[in-house]
Amino acid sequence: MAHNGLQVHARDELRISETLSVRVIQAAIAFAISFSVTAVIPLLVTALILRSDVITFVSAPSPACLTILAALASRTGGANMATRTTRAKVLGRAGDGRGRGCGVLFATIA
User: Fold this and answer.
1) Rounded Cα distance, 10 and 99, in Å
2) Helices marked H in the chain — which ranges?
3) Is pTM, for the whole model, over 0.85?
4) pLDDT tens, residue by residue, 33-58
5) What is the C-alpha separation between 94 and 97, in angstroms, rounded?
6) The dihedral of CA 97, 103, 107, 110: what is its sign?
7) CA angle at residue 104 from 94 to 64, to 5 degrees?
8) Distances from the Cα of 48 to the Cαs of 15, 30, 37, 85, 108, in angstroms?
9) Are 81 and 67 a contacting pair, CB within 8 Å?
10) Which of 44, 64, 73, 76 has its C-alpha lying 20 to 30 A from 87's C-alpha?
């Protein structure tokens, strides 16, 4: 492999080399399953909680589910678990903040 940034990232972070390639179908199926499993918990919370409390009760378990899946995925893939779970926590909270900000901006939530 040549020494450029993309190839170094592919080799070091994603473990892609000339001898080990990406399994696109396997990755897509794993992503679909993990996304579906993660989506079940907020949907159950939405079905069981009063309408006025939905935002509070859905925003709490969503980043937790992302963190658990990030830990599972990093363990399965052999990546650094601390880095992946921290990234999931931070980006999960950032996504919640953006969603809440849009709700406040468009006056759908207080």
Assistant:
1) 32
2) 5-12, 24-48, 54-59, 61-77, 81-105
3) no
4) 877 887 787 788 888 888 777 777 77
5) 5
6) negative
7) 30
8) 42, 28, 18, 28, 21
9) no
10) 44
